[in-house]
Amino acid sequence: MLAGSALVLARLAGAQLPADSARADSARTDSLRRVRADSVAARPATALAPVRVTALGGSLSPARVPYAVSLSTPTDAARVRSPIALDDALRAIPGLAVDNRYNIALGERITIRGFGARTQFGVRGVHVDVDGVPATMPDGQTTLSHVDPATVSSSEVLRGPASSLYGNSAGGVVRLRTLSPFELGDDIRLSSTVAERGTVTTRASVSGVSGSWGGEVRASSLDYRGFREHSNARDLRTGAQVVHSAVRDTVRLTVATVDYDADNPGGLTDSASVAAPRSASATNLRYRTGEKGSHRQAGVAWRHATEQWLVDASAWGLGRHLVNPIPQRIIDLQRQAAGGRIAIEHGAPGSAVSLGAGLEHGSQWDDRRSFNSLDGLRGAVQLDQAEDVESNGAFARAAVTVASAIDVLGSVRADRIRFHVNDHLVTPTDPDDGGTRTMSAVSPSLGVSWALAPRYSLYANVATAFETPTTTELANRPDGAGGINPDLAPQHTVSTEAGARAPLGSAGAATIALFDAHIRDALVPYELASAPGRQFYRNASRARQRGIEASASALLPSSVLARVAATVIDARFAATDSAAGLVAGRRIPGVAPFRADASLSAGVGGPLRAELLATVQSRAPADDANSAWAPGFTVVDGDLTLAQRAIGAVAVGASLALSNIFDRRYDTSVVPNAARGRFFEPGPPRTLTVTVELSRHRPRR
User: Fold this and answer.
1) Using 50, 70 and 90 to split pLDDT, how confident is the model at 611?
2) DSSP state of 505
3) In this structure, which topology does domain 2-697 adopt according to CATH?
4) Phi, psi dihedrals of residue 172, rounded to the nearest 5°
5) For a tag on the chain, would you pick the N or C end, based on fewer CB atoms within 10 A?
6) Radius of gyration of the chain (CA)
7) Alpha-carbon distance 81 to 601, whole Å?
8) Half-sphere exposure at residue 608, Cβ-oriented, CA atoms within 13 angstroms
9) CA distance 603 to 2
10) CA 378, CA 393: separation in Å to the nearest integer?
11) Hey, is 195 helix, strand or coil?
């Protein structure tokens, strides 16, 4: 308990896992290894190197960053509480919501200040990268099927528009880091998680460290038994990494694969959601909807740091194949993509000015075919086309200390994204729908922070973002034609923000931020009654997302750690578009006006630690007319964790998690503007999950 309390205190005081600072790599390696050993042997924990923010370029102190940035390290219990989504790994971050849809065919929905709410599957409007490799493709689409939540070591979330650094679809940024060999040490690990209804997750990994080199190989298997009809899934993930960590250079090579087969139960009407929340949509059952796919990717990231120069470079490539039966159609998509990024920064120690610049390129090649669905079997070909996307961006940033306590950070980026389609299905009755569209944007941002005292600061910024439609959204045309939708425009955002940070007690922290985002040509999803389950898109001329978010953490008496994060958001259409059926003043569907996450955790004796978590969400609109709403809810979860204890040469750990303790009926997410009122995706009832982990840890000599 002493070690756990010391580690919690260090984290609250700002001594969390450092971000990518190469200058601290040697200290990081030793400190992480000592902390890991201490958790087993119950020796006093060692404080880690100071945390740094890297999402804005360079390496900045959180207290002097003029933007809303959250850094989080999930607990061991959080990594296994929900084996199918990132909701626990990204819990209690203000402004951010992760809807675990308990539907592996669709994946989780991640929203930041309302950006990303439009997605039917995957993630839109939020840029995500994992270990320096983008999960967001050049067209703005993000898939996270290759990420095992149990491997997430830390996250860095930039809340608010960030296209000035990350380009397309950066209404917010999530940077995930997975456990590195230097955190795992020389280790062989096996774990098994069993949940009610027969869901079983098995994980195995082998890691080792030799001098400045480390490596790991891992695999996990999930057999998911969903609580809803037609929601089962299986997946197999594998991964490997090699890390070289020296004084000036850090190189990380990663490989990840996944093969999966998942059913999709679809959304339910209000009456069905209440009367039969375990049921599936009759339409989805008829057409056997779901997704079967494979994903292979590799990436390398390099950071070189001297006293005056910092170089970040990365390159990546992937291949993906999926077969996606949806109502009335079966989609067969082959995708290849590759890209690279380099950023260089110069700033001498103690210098009042640091300058940086960079280039980024991404290419994406899709072969898309669409067939008529004969109750889940392939019929005639309806679409056959090759889609190419080429994205190029150039960016620059400058950080200036204008006084001892005032910092200014400015950045600008120019992007050009070219979409090209070759139509392979041309007949006398089906003309050539091929063509080219180019979308470009210049995205500036400017922020200023004022450090009133150590750990006290005020900040303000003006930031911009743009978001192109994805290839899937451009290809889905209500008139049934292929090619590229000529009427769908990219979305543009200008946001203003002001915030403050302050200590809370001797070891806690509190933050607050007010934001106001004005959106032009907002991308809005809708469905047609003749094609339920298939989403099309239109632009709303103007929309507005404004609100307030706050968080607080504190170490209470008896080493009880308390955390809370809350967001109030007013997301509305700001203009009436009669042709699209949009009315000024109505709320944007899928964005809940209020959400809060709170947790209490404490040692309960010896190696046992307990945690109680609660999520409170207001009712949320489900359609543009605001005629249907998902009810508000409060869901309480709890877990009891047994820290690893050495039994001979083997260390044993375990956890017991109880989700939805009070067995509340709630909708975990909504499908905006779903046809025939099928808006609601029910969340699971009370669920017990048990995890046992074995490892053979061999300390380095």
Assistant:
1) very high
2) T
3) Maltoporin; Chain A (2.40.170)
4) -175, 170
5) C
6) 24
7) 15
8) 7
9) 9
10) 40
11) strand
| DSSP3 helix / strand / coil % (the chain, rounded to 5) | 10, 55, 30
Closest CA to 20 of 74, 56, 64, 45: 56
Question: Which of the four pLDDT bands, split at 50, 70 and 90, describes residue 2?
Answer: very low
Using H for helix, E for strand and C for coil, what is the string for 564-596?
Answer: EEEEEEEEEECCCEHHHCECCCCECCCCCCEEE
How far CA 453 is from CA of 63, 144, 449, 450, 502, in Å, comes to: 9, 40, 12, 9, 9
Give the pLDDT of residue 318: 95
- Find tokens 């990436």 and name the residue: 299
Predicted pLDDT of residue 82:
59
CA distance 414 to 167: 8
Ordered by start, the domain boundaries in the chain are 2-697
Q: Residues 157, 173: contact at Cβ < 8 Å?
A: yes
Quote the mean pLDDT of the chain: 87
pLDDT digits (tens, 9 = 90+) for 179-188: 889 988 899 9
d(CA 371, CA 122): 22
What is the maximum span of the chain, computed from C-alpha positions, in angstroms?
A: 78
Predicted TM-score of the model (pTM): 0.89
What DSSP element (H or E) covers 540?
strand 531-556
**Strand duo 152-159 + 200-210: pairing:** unpaired
Phi and psi at residue 381, in whole multiples of 5°? -70, 130
Q: What is the pLDDT of residue 81?
A: 60
How many Å apart are CA 466 and CA 329, to the nearest integer?
30
Q: Is 44 helix (H, G, I), strand (E, B) or coil?
A: coil
Q: How far apart (Å, rounded) are the C-alpha atoms in residues 330 and 323?
A: 7
DSSP 8-state assignment for residue 451: E
- Under the banding of pLDDT at 50, 70 and 90, the label for residue 287 is very high
CB 108 within 8 A of CB 100: yes
